[in-house]
Amino acid sequence: MKDFILPPKDDRDMGTPASRSLNMITLKIDGFDVTVPEGTSVMRASAEAGIQVPKLCATDSLEAFGSCRLCVVEIEGRRGTPASCTTPVSEGMVVQTQSSKVRKIRKGVMELYISDHPLDCLTCSANGDCELQDMAGAVGLRDVRYEAVDTHFQPRQNGEANPNYIPKDDSNPYFTYDPAKCIVCSRCVRACEEVQGTFALTITGSGFDSRVSAGAAGDDFMSSDCVSCGACVQACPTATLQEKSVIALGTPERSVITTCAYCGVGCSFKAELNGDQLVRMVPYKHGKANRGHSCVKGRFAYGYASHTDRIVNPMIRDRIEDPWREVSWEEALGFTATRLRAIQAKHGKHSIGGITSSRCTNEETYLVQKMIRAVFGNNNTDTCARVCHSPTGYGLRTTFGTSAGTQDFDSVEHTDVVIVIGANPTDAHPVFASRLKKRLRRGAKLIVIDPRRIDLVKSAHVAAAHHLPLRPGTNVAVLTSIAHVIVTEGLADEDFIRTRCDWSEFADYAEFASDPRHAPEATEMLTGVPAAELRAAARLFATGGNGSIYYGLGVTEHSQGSTTVMAIANLAMMTGNLGRPGVGVNPLRGQNNVQGACDMGSFPHELPGYRHVSDDATRAVFEQLWGVTIDAEPGLRIPNMLDAAVEGTFKGLYVQGEDILQSDPDTHHVAAGLAAMECVIVQDLFLNETANYAHVFLPGSTFLEKDGTFTNAERRINRVRRVMAPRNGLADWEVTQALANAMGAHWAYTHPAQIMDEIAATTPSFAGVSYEMLEEKGSVQWPCNEAAPEGTPIMHVDGFVRGRGRFITTEYVATEERTGPRFPLLLTTGRILSQYNVGAQTRRTDNAAWHPEDVLEIHPHDAELRGVKQDDWVRLASRAGETSLRAHLTDRVSPGVVYTTFHHPVTQANVITTDHSDWATNCPEYKVTAVQVALSNGPSEWQRDYAEHAERSRRILPAAE
Amino acid sequence: MTASPAKKLVKMANQIAIFFDTQPGDPATGIAHHINEFWEPRMREGLLDSSATTTEGLSPSVVKALAHIRRATQPA
Ligand code: SF4
Ligand code: SF4
Ligand code: SF4
Ligand code: FES
User: Fold this and answer.
1) Average of pLDDT values for A254-267?
2) Strand A716-720 relative to strand A929-935, pairing
3) pLDDT (tens digit per residue) in A101-160
């Protein structure tokens, strides 16, 4: 099936959504023959023929509504003047869009609208970008014959306050609502429902009294359920809902298509600018991951790029106790190269390493690992994917043969039953969540497996068929019980297993899973999941049609993370849910380029394309091109680097765009490791927490300031395009190149396109990728090579990459992190919508309005036992450390479980997390920590010490004159 | 609560053993293969050296796997 796509540059509003029908219909519009899919509206068919029918309440991101009557047409043989947006085409139809009759109607409609609209077009913020203005022109409105007695826009009338006048709502930090300009087309209300799925807006009243209103009576946008996704702003045809940045800066005059640098959904955006001044980010309607939608982070939270905290000059210092000294690039790079080489001379080649960034581009990540392997001369490269999705790589490679998700995001439109496990898409992957909710509203069923009652379990017009609220750390037990039910009740898809998997391995697995000890009744005590509910969920998944599984860090960040991923893979195979749209195993990646960072050989045991360093043939490819010998032994992973540093055999670390001190578990241990090193180089936008221990700070650039590619959770390679010059002078790939050259390399890349060419030349799954092809196709999903020149939206279609799918025995093993009398509660961690990861970017934007601090969610019962009330300061202690934060009482968490986020450095939630990790990959066990909670009277001693230390280590000497 | 380096390696090896002990086939082979594939030489050396002194605390399958774990100097 090939999707029907308009030429990529065509951004016209076609009025109504495209029809997916394969049945074609031919009709005549204004004398032209037009052929369109059945179900297309007359309005859209006209647009396809290049004829724009005037419209106000219709837009192609929303279903037609038919309220404004501006789009009326005449159709031969039909009475009256039907609205073209709500009238579907039929064979042989003859349409007139410009008869004198419809022109007259349209003028009348516009006159009515305009008589109740302030005519301050010249000073209106939407001047030049207003559909009401455009339509007045399109229908040839020249005068308004009557003056309205009552209006909505005049604050005072007949000398008295106008009861119909509602002042502007400025409560949202990013956009305003000015009711005076509203034409009540309800596009905003429908966008909030259909596109975003939040249902925060309604039309109250009727007729002349109808108004758009956020939330309940008395609410403003900020106090309503609004999540500030901006879909309503984008849908609004007037200045009623308008970005504050446009009000401040004027309408943009040029645009560049690029990719969001926040989460793994990888939304495409049009960055709209005046000169090099970014005015707004608008989700790109031809973006294949987001289809024109976005969330508050991507659309609005870009202010960090110009934040005053940003460091734009390189800095060095001899000791971490010293203040920073601003120096030239040359001096900083010379200092670094000399130190790193001196360390290697004294402590050996393997005493230094580096960390690649999942926030940086593929090209940048590729260069960092190349520098480590070719210039440092070892394999001590790792990436923050270690702490999030490394088990996905291990688990899916073992079972299917590829370290990546199996589907594209469009696949969700074809699914019938969805399991969401250990993920909170409405907060962490909002645009995917909106697409999922849309499918759920149309009838798909949902099973949520999560310790918390996440928003998806119950929200406007969406409810989970089953929520299995398991105890943190028991994923494997729950998934194996689901397998037990499927196998013992004869619900497995034997045809699929026989043709696609290894039958004898399945037989072994079936025998294992059938054991009565895996029955839901037997595991109920352990997991806390009611057996009947689990059985019902298992039956639904096995028999409900296309079944898909989406999972997140709640799966991977456990001591059995890799085993859980394999249990998920088993479940998909045994139910035959692989290799077609609507099914599959879908890891929801955290950061924008986690997938890419893994693909590009960031891991210490793998060269780009997931090929082990001990493989002679693979090494030969790179050795020949790079002119060096590559170490055949795996290097150190992040936790191993820190261990080796504490032991004294690892002394130098180059960290690009990561904040391991804040994001990695067991902060005390990370700090000790960093403090033991002789040269820590941090390359970032801000003096992050890790930089407190750094000797060199190399300023980084934002995604707005460089060219490159990101690869999202569906393996889609998206272009990142430079919209403005780097404020620090160099893009990150240029900094890495300069450092490599300072250490003796002779690299001469002048554009990231050349780096991509090198990736394509060395990595089979990228063989067909180049900037030219991305320019032409917009984006492509790897593998993209001779066998799949168009890329691969869905994997394992005719067979698994590894040959036969492999079932793996998944025995539940309790984590060593257990509750006991001293630490009776289980802490699990997560993230929220408005903040991103360690928050370095989002905290420096107005998103702070939604999440000023991390709080501890605790069940009212547990709170009462401890005398804790809402908003009290509490001390949160584990075997690893303690911190303080405010309590939030909620029954979203079960008794015995507490929950927090880790967006703010003052909280230092990772002071609490332990050094337990996944058995296969060392991915830390963030999701389970035994803790105790008690009342406290403010920040802990560690937090005060830490704040003081951070302040001291951030001092910068005034520049010498 | 950070364990000593040798203890940490023992714990990691035991964790790997817990998985392979539940798999069909010989656990020792699986364990050794996994460690050879993912552990940097100094970690393998650390485990081999400390287990030369004592195998206390090591799971029996890890003890069996020791013979198949490559020394840093051994070619792959
Ligand atoms: S910003 Fe999004 S959530 Fe808020 S009202 Fe508009 S569409 Fe709804
Ligand atoms: S706010 Fe904008 S989109 Fe909503 S009804 Fe008014 S004019 Fe239409
Ligand atoms: S953060 Fe994620 S969902 Fe939000 S706009 Fe960016 S890529 Fe899209
Ligand atoms: S655009 Fe068709 S009725 Fe409004």
Assistant:
1) 90
2) unpaired
3) 999 999 999 988 888 888 888 898 888 889 999 888 888 888 777 777 777 787 777 778
Domain at A509, CATH number? 3.40.228.10
Q: Does B8 touch chain A (CB under 8 A)?
A: yes
Q: What distance in angstroms lies between residue A236's CA and the mean position of ligand 2's atoms?
A: 5
Q: Residue A904's pLDDT is what?
A: 66
Q: What is the dihedral of CA A140, A142, A143, A144, to 10 degrees?
A: 20
Of A704, A700, A775, residue with least CA distance to A733: A700
Q: Which domain holds residue B14?
A: 5-68
Sort out which chain A residues have CB atoms less than 8 A from B72's CB and list them: 633
A612 plus A725 within the same structural domain: yes
| Cβ separation A643–B5 shorter than 8 A | yes
Interval between CA A832 and ligand 3 midpoint (Å): 13
Q: Residue A942 has what pLDDT?
A: 67
Check whether residue A624 and residue A732 sit in a common domain.
yes
Structural domain boundaries enclosing A450 = 390-587
Position in ligand 3 atom list of the atom nearest CA A265: 7
Q: How many domains does chain A have?
A: 5
Determine whether the shortest distance from the Cβ of A110 to ligand 4 is under 6 A. no
pTM exceeds cut of 0.95: no
Cβ <8 Å between B1 and A915: yes
User: Is A728 in the same domain as A617?
Assistant: yes
Closest-lying ligand 3 atom to the alpha carbon of residue A263: 2
Pick A633's closest partner by Cβ from B12, B24, B41: B41
Partner-chain contact A614 B76, CB within 8 Å: yes
Q: Which residues are CB-neighbours of A741 under 8 A, at least 6 positions away?
A: A747
Q: Quick one: A369 and A394 in the same domain?
A: no
Instruction: Name every chain A residue with its beta carbon within 8 A of the beta carbon of B22.
Output: 809, 811
Q: What is the CA(A43)–ligand 4 centre distance, in A? A: 9
Of A745, A760, A793, the last residue of a domain is A745
Taking only the tens place, the pLDDT of each residue in A540-578 is: 999 999 999 999 888 888 778 888 999 999 999 999 999
Which residues contact ligand 3 via a Cβ below 6 A?
A: A 260, 262-263, 265-267, 290, 294-295, 297-298, 430-431
Instruction: Identify whether residues A469 and A600 lie together within a single domain.
Output: no
Q: How many CB atoms lie within 10 A of CB A235?
A: 21
**Which among B2, B24, B40 has the least Cβ separation from residue A915?**
B2
| Tokens at A178, concatenated | 């000015």
ipTM of the complex: 0.87
Dihedral angle at the C-alpha atoms of A92, A1, A438, A422, nearest 10 degrees? Answer: 180
Q: Are A274 and A331 members of one domain?
A: no
CB A745 within 8 A of CB A374: yes
The C-alpha atoms of residue A878 and residue A99 are separated, in whole angstroms, by 76
d(CA A208, CA A189): 17
Tokens 């508050």 locate to: A296
Whether residue A453 sits in one domain with residue A541: yes
What's the CA gap between A118 and A180, in Å, rounded? 8
Nearest to A919 among B2, B16, B39 (CB): B16
Cis before A783? omega within 30: yes
Residue B75 lies in a domain: no
Distance (Å) from CA A733 to ligand 3 centroid = 24
Domain count, chain B: 1
- What SS3 string covers A509-535? HHHHHHCHHHCHHHHHHHHCCCHHHHH
Q: What does the radius of gyration of chain A's CA atoms come to, in whole angstroms?
A: 29
Q: Specify if B52 maps to a domain.
A: yes
Cβ-Cβ contacts under 8 Å, B2 against chain A: 646, 666, 668-669, 672, 915
Domain membership flag for residue B73: no
Pick from A350, A647, A879: CB nearest B5: A647
Q: Does residue A110 sit in helix, strand or coil? A: helix
Please tell me the distance from the alpha carbon of residue A932 to that of residue A388, in angstroms, as a whole number: 25
